[in-house]
Amino acid sequence: MKKIAILGSTGSIGRNTVDVIRNFPDHFSIEALTVNTRIDLLEKQVDEFHPKVVAVKDEKLATELKRRIGNKCEVLSGEEGLLSIAADYDYDIFVGAMVGFSGLAPTLEAIKRGKRIALANKETLVVAGELVTELAKKYNAELLPVDSEHSAIFQCLVGEDLSGVDKLILTASGGPFLHKTKTELAGVTVKEALNHPNWKMGNKITIDSASMMNKGLEVIEARWLFDLPCEKIEIVVHPQSIVHSMVRFVDGSMKAQMSMPDMKLPIQYALTYPERFASQFVSTHLPFIQTLTFFEPDFDKFECLKLAFDVLDAGGTSPCILSASNEVAVDKFLKGKIKFSAIPEIISKSLERFENHLKPDLETIIMCDKETRIFAEQLV
Ligand code: MG
151 CA distance to ligand 1 centroid (A)? Predict the structure, then answer.
């Protein structure tokens, strides 16, 4: 029986994780859950899974939850509550499903305890990839990817030696604007951007998919997760999202991992690895799909993708500047305050504004994140 802590249990990845765990009551138990604000759903999860402890980031809502659930389980609050769950409570697998920069600190706590980390929080590896992977090595923590692309690469690499790898090839659906021109792209609406053709995800990541920043962030993640230099990573556009990513080896052979797009598969694999459990959810029938197509990404149209490759080369704090300014810009776009084309503009200006610090420690990263956000806010 493996004990699970899910940080961000009411978001898209969190809910999918709960769905997976529900199917294997003999293998997994939920020990701890955290949310930012959605206490209604958390209350239901508490009733169903009886965790020992939960944390709500919003202090007022934490008090409200306490009032509602009485002594069914311990309720912590605030950033400290989330940190404390990662640092002080008992679990075997830490599912990092929170959105944004705030996922970093609790993940570091779990790493320091040498736990298995099922990592869905992109920012952790994007802004602090070097630090996170160094600490994971030092404390013998297992970093298992939950993102479909990285899970695919991870699955392709089982039994392989990294020295035999020629290229990691991340697939990108291209999002809803694959066939729009650069001029059309500039004026798309929030509603259009939120309409992803293949995946149902949270708002932030759906906008990132529309700008292809999501793929850029994934390339940075892959660089750290698989410890390969940037020239060994490339992107291919694959609109059907059936091939979740590939590895090309030095002998010219390629391995691809395929399935219908459903996040429950990579989540389940991160929980059960190295075993595979029978899935209640995913079955893939290729004759039904018929056609798989692949083509080169358009770096000129998707400026965010180009910016991500630039910072991948630069390293240091530049991925943090990219990620923080992107978070601010996406938030403003979702609130209708800026045009879609202003997202890469805000990121470019932020990258120009700040000096790049190489080999940053956590404090430098936190400072860089803060300063970038303030600057990006002012640009709007
Ligand atoms: Mg992905």
Answer: 9
